[in-house]
């Protein structure tokens, strides 16, 4: 394929559109530089790092508008580790899952492989659609993803009817939703995510907004493992009780990536100073609408998610006609500095996937659509 050079005047100022890791603003890197000799390379048990963690917890409580009796808890390992932690420390016996893509399926798979849990009840649908778990007898947790990163589907977040009376927890994966989609945290017991999406940081950390019921569940399960005849081993790394107690001291169980904490803290201050969740979600909605409107008006592209009510304002998926090779389009974009617009590989569609998190400028999204049109015109004119 011949090299395509997009006119410089058409290019976005910043060409990073990744669905995670996502764009990191220059001001976040400057915050790292400012702490190069005073924070980086120092112990996470000391006051300087604890102050950053405390600022993160307070900033997230403000941004997410958590109820007064909820807590912000953080730990090592990312959202992937939290799936196993939830199996070890939040699901008592059996959970019900909504599965509608790769990441919502992985949590269900973790529960299915846990030897001390009964097989989960899985409510499944095809990618591009959404399926929440339904009320199910004898389950103690309902689990799904607020945003399915692999498909660009945004799911509603509300308690399953009858779940409170049942004593079941609502556990929602918010990895690509938190900071980009509106949410009422009181409708959840564990709203958890990694910071490498809307919060513009690196991975390796998980954060959760936990209800009193979730905290009580974690402590209750931890206590039950000491009883005779209980066959459940909770490794220290997967102990939510331990993570809660460390978070209350503004620290993590093991050494975290200090750079991630610094960038996350700076991003939270930027988001809250600009207007918090209302501002961030409105900005993401504007970014997403530019892409959806462009695709609906295009003669070769269309939104993958058919139902407009389910289309994500965090990760936008656009199908291309079969006559247009998406891999060639994304390769040409990359050669011109426009990065990470490929579809999710395991989904296997002829597709573009674009992260439109708060750090992404609307003007850059508009420029992206023009650049795609230019590349397609050069390749298939």
From TrEMBL:
Residues 1-21 are annotated as: Disordered. The keyword Amino-acid biosynthesis applies. SUPFAM superfamilies: PLP-dependent transferases (SSF53383). It catalyses: 4-(phosphooxy)-L-threonine + 2-oxoglutarate = (R)-3-hydroxy-2-oxo-4-phosphooxybutanoate + L-glutamate; O-phospho-L-serine + 2-oxoglutarate = 3-phosphooxypyruvate + L-glutamate. GO terms for biological process: glycine biosynthetic process, by transamination of glyoxylate; L-serine biosynthetic process; pyridoxine biosynthetic process. Residues 143-343 form the Aminotransferase class V domain. Pathway: Amino-acid biosynthesis; L-serine biosynthesis; L-serine from 3-phospho-D-glycerate: step 2/3. Its cofactor is pyridoxal 5'-phosphate. It comes from the Bacteria. Coiled coil: none annotated. GO terms for molecular function: alanine-glyoxylate transaminase activity; L-serine-pyruvate transaminase activity; O-phospho-L-serine:2-oxoglutarate aminotransferase activity. Its EC number is 2.6.1.52. It holds the Pfam family Aminotran_5. Keywords: Amino-acid biosynthesis, Aminotransferase, Cytoplasm, Pyridoxal phosphate, Pyridoxine biosynthesis, Serine biosynthesis, Transferase. Signal peptide: none annotated. Catalyzes the reversible conversion of 3-phosphohydroxypyruvate to phosphoserine and of 3-hydroxy-2-oxo-4-phosphonooxybutanoate to phosphohydroxythreonine. Belongs to the class-V pyridoxal-phosphate-dependent aminotransferase family. SerC subfamily. This is phosphoserine transaminase. It comes from Bifidobacterium pullorum subsp. gallinarum.
């Amino acid at each position: 394929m011949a090299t395509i050079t997009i006119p410089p005047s058409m290019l976005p100022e910043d060409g990073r559109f990744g669905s995670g890791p996502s764009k990191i603003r220059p001001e976040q890197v400057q915050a790292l530089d400012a702490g190069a000799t005073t924070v980086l390379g120092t112990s996470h048990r000391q006051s300087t790092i604890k102050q950053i963690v405390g600022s993160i917890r307070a900033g997230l409580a403000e941004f997410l508008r958590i109820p007064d009796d909820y807590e912000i808890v953080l730990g090592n390992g990312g959202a992937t580790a939290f799936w196993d932690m939830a199996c070890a420390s939040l699901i008592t016996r059996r959970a019900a899952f909504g599965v509608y893509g790769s990441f919502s399926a992985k949590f269900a798979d973790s529960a299915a492989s846990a030897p001390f849990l009964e097989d989960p009840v899985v409510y499944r649908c095809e990618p591009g659609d959404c399926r929440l778990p339904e009320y199910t007898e004898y389950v103690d947790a309902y689990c799904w993803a607020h945003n399915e990163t692999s498909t660009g589907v945004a799911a509603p977040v509300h308690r399953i009817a009858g779940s409170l009376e049942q004593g079941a927890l609502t556990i929602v994966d918010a990895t690509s939703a938190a900071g980009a989609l509106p949410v009422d945290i009181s409708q959840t017991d564990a709203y958890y995510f990694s910071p490498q999406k809307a919060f513009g940081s690196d991975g390796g950390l998980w954060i959760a907004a936990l209800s009193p019921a979730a905290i009580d569940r974690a402590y209750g399960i931890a206590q039950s493992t000491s009883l005779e005849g209980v066959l459940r081993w909770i490794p220290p790394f997967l102990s939510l009780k331990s993570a809660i107690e460390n978070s209350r001291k503004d620290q993590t169980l093991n050494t975290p990536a200090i750079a991630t904490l610094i960038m996350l803290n700076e991003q939270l201050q930027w988001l809250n100073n600009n207007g918090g969740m209302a501002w961030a979600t409105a900005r993401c909605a504007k970014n997403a609408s530019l892409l959806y409107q462009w695709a609906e008006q295009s003669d070769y592209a269309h939104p993958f998610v058919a139902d407009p009510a389910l289309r994500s304002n965090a990760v936008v998926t656009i199908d291309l006609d079969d006559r247009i090779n998406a891999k060639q389009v994304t390769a040409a974009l990359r050669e011109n500095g426009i990065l990470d617009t490929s579809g999710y590989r395991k989904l296997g569609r002829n597709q573009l996937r674009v992260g439109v998190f708060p750090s992404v400028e609307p003007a850059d999204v508009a420029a992206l659509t023009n650049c795609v049109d230019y590349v397609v015109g050069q390749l298939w004119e």
